[in-house]
Every structure is written in structure tokens, then in C-alpha cells.
Amino acid sequence: MTFETVPADRPQDLKPLTALRFFAAMWVVLYHFWPNLQADRPNIIARGYLGVELFFVLSGFILCHVYLESFRARRFGYRDFLWARLARIYPMHLSIIAGLALLIGGLSFAGIHAGDKLIIWSSLPAHLTLTQAWGLAPHGGWNHPSWSISAEWFAYLTFPVFAVAAVALWSRPVVALGLVAVLLAVLYIVFPLVAGFPLTEATMFWGALRIVPCFALGCAAWLVWRSGRITSRTASMAIAGTGLAGLLLTVCLNGPDLVAVLCCTLLILGLGLAARHGATLLSQAPLVYLGEVSFAIYMVCIPWQLVSVEGLQKVAHLDPDHLPLALWLTLVIGVIPAAMVLHHLVELPARHHMRKFKFSTYRPSAPEHTPID
User: Fold this and answer.
1) What DSSP element (H or E) covers 142?
2) What's the pLDDT at 38?
3) How many angstroms separate the CA atoms of 23 and 4, rounded?
């Protein structure tokens, strides 16, 4: 099969990677919601925090897919880039913060005090400026999962640094991937010695550092994707299958996070290559749609959990740490329609209106299916 370079102004819509975001988001949801079931937690659920690493690698891959060709051709508009990324993440983030404040106020009026660990005014400036994962919100609070979009914002601000490195290794993608893998290994070994906990557990402290090796892995994997070195659908599917099997084995056997992240990278690269070569795996419209809603799923899961659990405790007098399985499943699945509402009422309209404004005349014709987080 002949490899053809994707035009810089028309990056291919890699639908399987959009769909993959849904599974990553639900992995994180299961990780957060499992304590409400009060059952033995299997390793695959206990390692659900790695869904964030999967998002981070995806982010580096997709942003290079959309912008790196224009960066290399010196047609990259940094202000437009940042504005587009802000339009992607900030309206939802701001609406969740406002919604939480109203929710906690309403619950308090009803006699339910649930805001002691959420409404922390000293952390609000960092949340509003998307710097809460930079060590500027030590007491946390508000919507905790938003630390990851603060880390994403750090990667967006420093994207030219990643881009310069990627362009320098443009014709040596395997070298780029190897160098970043070494960086990942060094950070994962050294960081716990300094901080006392793994880098994959960093959130409000060192969350901005947590994204760096994963984002760089995504950039390097995209260089391999565009190089044309893998030209068959069979080989592409084999890479994706190896990544998925390796990820499942690693988490189920409680293997190193380092191996799991490298397997995530193989999975993303394989799916991207398979889509490039015409495979339809994970390209079905319902899965792609759920992938588009994944950011809202991720952002609303904790508020949804708060409302549902507190409501069940108040109205039905149920122990929030011992929910019946059927009720717990309803709680988990209910995140999806709640996210759909926010996606259509907040995320899409706000993004559309913000993107009407642009700083420069050039704008890459990018697909909307770019990950968050």
C-alpha cells in the first residue's frame, strides 16, 4: 500500500482515537465510583487512574496530527492555537465550578452539608486560571478531576517546545520514540525518590509534570504514524492488539505503570495506523459520538456522584459506601446522559462561539475530535 502524506490543512479524522477517549473516560469513572460498591476492587479498576495517562498520550498525538505540519511550515499561529484549546476546555470547566457552588448551596439549604472539601475559596484563583495542577492549589477542592485539564493547559502553553523537538527529529521517528521512552523511565524511577509517591499519582502537586512524558510520547508516536514505515493494515492491527493486550495484562497483573503507559502508546499508534489504512475498528458512529462526549463525562463524574450519593443517602437512607449492585450500575451509567446534556448545552455552543474569534487569517482545517484530557 502506498503511503500518502496527509495535507497540513486537512488532517485525517482518526475516528478510532475519538472512540478510545470514551473507554478512557469510563475507566476513570469506574475508578472513582468503585468505593460506593464496597466490593473487592480488581486490579483493572484499581489502575483506572491510568486512564488519565491514556488521555495525555492521545493529546500529544492528536495535537501534533493537527498542528505540527503547519508548525514545521511556519504557518502556526500560537495565539489562535491557545484560543482554540481554551475554547475546548474552559467553558465546561467554568460551568462545573459554578454548578458546584450552586449545588453545594442548594444542598446546604436542604440540610445536607457536602461542601466542606469542595468549596475551598483559597484554591479558586488557581482553578479559574487553570493552574491548580502547578502546585498553586495545595488544598484542592472544587472539581478535583479538573487538575488534569490544568496539566493539559500547561502542555498547550509549552506546545512550541514539544513541536521544536519533534521537528528536529522529523526524519528519525524511531529515535524520537526511544528517547521519550527513556525520559519516561527516568522520571518514573527518579520522581518517587524525590516526592515519595509515583508520578502517576500526582494531581494538585506536580500534575503539570505528570503530563510531560506522556504528551511527548504522543508526539513521538505521531512522527512514527506519519513516517509511512508501517504500510499494512495487518501490521497496524497487530500493533494495536499488542498494545491492548499488554495494557490489560500489565494492569491485571499489577505490573509497572511505565509498561502500562508504553502499551497505551502502542494502542494509540496502532489504532491511528489502522484508521489510516482503512480499518473501521471503533469507527462506528455511536462510539465516535460517545468519544466526543468523553470530556463532559470526565468533568461531570464527581459532581454527578456527589448529587446521586447524597440524594440516595438523604431520601432513601442508603449507605453510600454499600450501594446495591443494580443501583451502583445505574449511578455509573447515569453519568453518560448527564454528560450528553452538558455537551450539547454548554460545551458545543461555547466552543462554537469562542472559535468565531481568531487572531490570524490562517487556521488549519482541524477535526473537532481532539482529546482533553
Assistant:
1) none
2) 77
3) 30
Find all residues with CB under 8 Å of 130, minimum gap 6, and list them.
89, 90, 93, 149, 150, 153
| Secondary structure of residue 25 in the 3-state scheme | helix
Q: What grid cell was written down for 27?
A: 475507566
Distance CA 200, CA 197 (A): 8
Evaluated on CA atoms 294, 300, 302, 307, the torsion sign reads negative
What Å distances lie between residue 243 and 71, 239, 249, 255, CA to CA?
29, 6, 10, 14
Could you please report the per-residue DSSP string of 179-223? HHHHHHHHHHHHHHHHHSS-GGG-STTTHHHHHHHHHHHHHHHHH
Q: pLDDT under 50 in the chain at which residues?
A: 1-8, 365, 367-373
Separation CA 166–CA 55 (nearest Å): 19
Among 308, 297, 344, 316, CA closest to 103 = 308
Residues in the chain: 373
What would the pLDDT profile of 311-369 be if each residue is shown by its tens digit? 777 777 788 888 889 999 999 999 999 999 999 999 999 999 998 887 765 555 454 44
The DSSP secondary structure of 89-135, one letter per residue, reads: HHHHHHHHHHHHHHHHHHHHHTT----TTT--GGGHHHHHTT-GGGT
Residue whose C-alpha is closest to residue 181's, from 151, 220, 209: 220
Domain boundaries, the chain: 15-73+85-354
Contact (CB, 8 A) for 103 and 307: yes
pLDDT score at 163: 98
For the chain, counts of helices (H) and of strands (E)? 15, 0
* pLDDT given for residue 373 in this prediction: 37
Quote the cell numbers at residue 8.
497540513
pLDDT of residue 244: 98
Residue 309: per-residue pLDDT: 81
With both helix axes pointing from N to C terminus, report the angle between 50-72 and 257-276 in degrees, rounded to the nearest 10.
Answer: 50
Residue 371 confidence (pLDDT): 41
